Amino acid sequence: LTPEFSLESYAAQSFGVYQDPAQYGEVVWRFAPDAATRAAEFQFHPTQILEPQDDGSLIVRFNAAGWLEMAWHLYQWGDKVEVLAPMGLREMVAGYQRSDFAALP
Question: If you classify domain 10-87 with CATH, what class do you get?
């Protein structure tokens, strides 16, 4: 390891455990009004920014990689979350956002 290496900085580039430098970039999710309060209680990422919207929904922004791990996490929110960016993650979760079970309580 080089003296400049920071494990904390390296870890902050991923959503969870997985690292993929090609995927690193802005992540933007919109939570529906009926899931926004619960989503606001989560720390999805240490650098996240929460943006409450006038319609009651919530936009969450952060920079990270690890789309597959994000997709696994987003599945439990059902159709109460929409991926606005990145397009690759949006395409990955398309068709898997279920409405037949409640989002996280």
Answer: alpha beta
